[in-house]
Structures are given as structure tokens and as C-alpha cells.
Amino acid sequence: MVREDIDAAVFAKLGTLAGFNTTSRRLAHFADTPAESCPALFYASGREKSVTVTGQPAVWTLEREVWIYVKTDGIAPSTLLNPLLDEICSLIDQQNPITGRNTLGIDGVSHCRIDGVIEIAEGTLADTAIAVIPLEILTA
Known about the structure:
The chain is of the alpha+beta class. The protein has 2 helices and 6 strands; from the N terminus they run αβββαβββ. It has helices spanning 3-14, 77-92; strands at 22-24, 40-51, 59-71, 109-114, 119-125, 128-139. Strands 1, 2, 3, 4, 5 and 6 form a 6-stranded mixed sheet that branches. It is elongated and about 60 Å long. The chain starts with a helix and ends with a strand.
């Protein structure tokens, strides 16, 4: 497993999605993200867990997050967030018809999936709405 290769490939896949003015692997604070940069997508690293069986290579679970910022400007936040969430879910939820997993076509990935609760803050942060999508990447 090469973490950087996996993260670069996942981020490249996310970068193909339409609708974002900004994509970055460097998470910025919402207050430091101007309106013209939104909608913005950020990909951030999180925790990592190893499972080792004697005599076999370690299998790693990489926790990552996709952050989305939109500027609401008086518009209902969900009307801006929902299509973007749908695009990301559609990309991540694609399953191989044989294995039932989504490797995103990335070497070293056994599966990539949304795992957990998508956190959404709809406009409680002035004119910014935020969604945080938890990803789980299991290495092969």
C-alpha cells in the first residue's frame, strides 16, 4: 500500500465531478473560502487502522473526509448541497457487478465507500452551508 498513490487517485476521481469551483487536498476554514470559490470540495485525511494476521501483509483501513462548502446567499442550503452530495454518493457507491465493491479502479484498494453519518450544517454559519462525508478506504 502506498498512501499517497491512493489519496492522489481518490482525489483525482473526486476532481472529475462537475459543479465545484474549487477542489483541494488542503482543508480550508469556511471563513477563509470566498464566495467565488464555492461550491468548494476538500479532501482530508483522518484516522488509519491496521489489522495484521501473522504471516500476511497488514490490511489498512484509511478514514478520509470530503468537505463541501456552499454559499447560500439567501437560497435554501439543501437545494445547493443535495445535487453535490448526490454526485459524490453516485461516484463512491458504484459497485462492481461481480465483487459488489467499489475500488474506484485504484491499485491497492479493496473497497472505497461512504461509512458513517454525513454531517450537514445548513446555514448556521452565516451564509455558508457545509457537508462532511466520511469515506472508508480498505487497502488490498
